[in-house]
């Protein structure tokens, strides 16, 4: 039973990988970018757990800039994905312009709150 | 007319001193007495002036200007043009039902309320007026008009057996401020009516209490009911120090001040020692020094506070500042202001409740000082000194001072512990920049 579970997990992992290999390159770049942001956020949470929450506003702005970046990247990915029929009327240039504008606002707020 | 011309320079001086008062009180002038020395003495009849002359002479020898008047003299007045003419009042008129002139019960209470001193002596036939004034001061004389204090154990031995109404009392209050440093050896001879203290009045003190075997009753009639006042609940001599530091002495005996008892020898029943002289002279002289503020009068000046390391007094403190507080306290010794030395003066840093309560340390020259850290709370605080000790005039000072939080620019700009957060925020910006190029030029 345990053996077959391992096989199943492996099979699932393989199918996911092969399906992901078919993903367009620009979406993969967005995924990498979002993963980098989430990883940076995790590092900060661990750091805060180690040294304490003293400059709490700095901690919040550091973590929220990462989370915000990741969320905006995911939003962009949804909008530029060709297979997503929901946004088929939205041109990718327009989606990218929205992404840039939101990022500018986000970083403006983060810089003000950083300390 | 002659008196008016004589008084006018005095009024002029009083006016000048009134204007100079804020400047004078700021500096320490060693010879300036806290109270004046003009005393009005009201008598039932002028014979008291000679029969109690030893007491009056002791006051006069200490510099008091006694003005003797009959209690029903129509020219009596405590005030003229809104100014009090006297600094003290002695009522040796137990039988008076009505004062002459403009004086009445309310005028006497106003006199005390404005910070002047009062001595009241009642007697076996004390009038309602005197009783009411005493009641207002917080003591109640025995309501039976014929009752006097009788003590069949603590009486003073005399040649005739008598009715034991002349009693030898030696239950003094334990306070060297009120009764002087020298112990009163001989008992005090007392003949008169007793009073009890009003329990709701916590300013009145029993200075001379009757012995536990005393009671208050009519000695001429058979005792059918238990007496209303018994034992050491009977006060023979009481004092009041009002909140404005006016001092009042109340006693149920006028004869306690008389030459007869001043000179008399005394032997308490059951005691073998016979004192050549009763304690009345020493007791009443010492207590009159206290009543007229020759002793136990404190004054505080030069309240200062500053940040540690700075000399100037700031208009405002910041939370967690270190500050220094100092105050000077002097005691009037009868002739000069002497440094007051004590180890229990405390200052409060107060906002609705004391946040800091510190005992001040003294340099034995009158300066009390301490230093403490402002609490981590901002708001409008007060430096408060509330000093109330038995026999001493009360000190109550407060000085308001605001405490502010850190200003926006008083925090550190870059905190080392926050560098990872700064790094994360800037790496996100750099990542965004890079991603923009990669996304646009990757086709």
Q: What features would you describe in this structure?
A:
The complex is a heterodimer of chains A (115) and B (443). Chain A starts with a helix and ends with a helix. Chain A contains 4 helices and no strands. Chain A has one domain (25-113). Helices cover 82% and strands 0% of the residues of chain A. Chain A is an all-alpha fold and 115 residues long. Chain A has helices at residues 2-21, 25-51, 56-80, 92-113. In chain B, the strands form 7 sheets. Chain B has an 8-stranded mixed sheet, covered by helices on one side. In chain B, strands 18, 20, 21, 24 and 25 form a 5-stranded antiparallel sheet that branches. Chain B contains 9 helices and 27 strands. Chain B folds into 3 domains: 33-291, Rossmann fold (3-Layer(aba) Sandwich), CATH 3.40.50.880; 297-408, Immunoglobulin-like, CATH 2.60.40.1930; 414-441. Chain B has 443 residues and is an alpha+beta fold. Chains A and B meet through helix 2, helix 3 and helix 4 of A and helix 9 of B.
Q: Which properties best describe this structure?
A:
heterodimer, A: 115 residues, mainly alpha, B: 443 residues, alpha+beta, Rossmann fold, Immunoglobulin-like, 8-stranded mixed sheet, 5-stranded antiparallel sheet, 9 helices, 27 strands, elongated, disordered N terminus
